[in-house]
Amino acid sequence: MSEPASISSGIAERYATAIFEIAKESKSLPKLESNIDDLRAALAESAELRDVISSPVLARADQAKVMDAIAKKMKLETVMANGLAVMAGKRRLFVLPQLLQHLSAMIADDKGEVTADVTSAKALTKAQSEKLAKTLTARVGKDVKINATVDESLIGGLVVKVGSKMIDTSIRSRLNSLQNAMKEVG
Question: How is 151-177 classified by DSSP, letter by letter?
Answer without folding.
Answer: -GGG-SSEEEEETTEEEE--HHHHHHH
